[in-house]
Design brief:
This is Polyphosphate kinase 2 family protein. With 285 residues, the chain is α/β, with parallel strands linked by helices. The protein has twelve helices and five strands. A five-stranded parallel sheet has the order 2-3-1-4-5, sandwiched between helices. Helix 6 runs antiparallel to helix 7 and helix 6 crosses helix 10. The protein starts with 9 loop residues before the first helix and ends with a helix. The relative contact order is 0.20.
């Protein structure tokens, strides 16, 4: 039986274009995928095998002098599924080849530097897959919504982020940017589940409800981010996230595409293979 396939590749159907409006997104839709949840699990398992192989090739290149890396940027409101993506998608590859970093409220040390300082320090090394749970975009979104700094400060950050990402790509890093879009109804259900289950209380923050009331302002802020920072070098992908299985499938495909585009072969041996075989065969044990 043929393996389930996307009707339109995820990197095409989910890419944010110039006319994209976040407010028009159907949060329960499954763009490009019509085969259902069970088939999605089958496809994701296959994608996991491919991800594992390509990640090992990337890691091998990093160990032998290569300069390439991949950075997955995850943005989204609270409960949108960023942590689940890390567990279920990134969990399919070898952890020694992953650099994962979450960005919350800046520390005192981070505040003493430029807003990109902490981001630069967390960029993936050659051969690595980097994962940002929130990112440099927090330094545009939060100040805009909460008015913590003058508008002229966060306004100039859009262009600075675009320049920064251009520099990162030029250095050999492929950037895969994902915004996980969740409906207010689904968010309410997920927050309620965290309150109902003692094993989920550690995930709950009373401040999440305060942030939830600011959803209209966050929607405007996210739209501005998509409008001003989705570029050919580092495009945004908007993933409907009410169906967790679809969001995880979609991100696995986006990451897989990013790795495939590197077109990496296994590094050539820097030693005489036949000579080493002969040496091994000649050893007494």
């Amino acid at each position: 039986m043929a393996r389930p396939q996307w009707t339109v590749p995820a990197h095409q159907v989910l890419r944010v274009g110039p006319d994209f409006r976040l407010g028009d997104l159907d949060h329960r839709a499954t763009p490009g995928w019509g085969a259902g949840r069970t088939a999605a699990k089958e496809r994701m398992a296959a994608a996991g095998d491919e991800l594992s192989d390509l990640q090992e090739r990337l890691f091998a290149h990093g160990r032998t002098g290569g300069s390439r890396s991949v950075l997955l940027v995850l943005q989204g409101m609270d409960t949108s599924g960023k942590g689940g993506i890390v567990r279920h998608v990134i969990g399919m590859v070898d952890p020694q080849g992953v650099q994962h970093r979450s960005f919350g409220v800046p520390t005192d040390e981070e505040k003493a530097h430029d807003f990109l300082w902490r981001i630069r320090r967390a960029l993936p090394r050659p051969g690595m897959i980097g994962v940002f749970d929130r990112s440099q975009y927090e330094d545009v979104l939060v100040p805009r919504v909460h008015e913590t700094v003058p508008a002229e400060i966060w306004e100039e950050r859009y262009e600075r982020i675009v320049d920064f990402e251009r520099e990162v790509v030029a250095s050999g890093t492929t950037i895969v940017k994902v915004v996980l879009a969740i409906s207010p109804e689904e968010q309410r259900e997920r927050l309620a589940a965290r309150l109902d289950r003692p094993d989920k209380h550690w995930k709950y923050d009373p401040g999440d409800l305060d942030e939830r009331l600011l959803r209209p302002r966050y929607a405007e802020a996210y739209q501005a981010v998509l409008d001003r920072t989705s570029t050919d070098l580092a495009p945004w992908h908007a993933v409907p996230a009410d169906r967790k299985w679809y969001a995880r499938l979609a991100v696995s495909e986006l990451l897989l595409h990013g790795l495939e585009e590197l077109r990496l072969e296994w590094p050539a041996a820097n030693f005489d293979v036949e000579a080493e075989k002969a040496r091994l065969a000649a050893q007494p044990w």
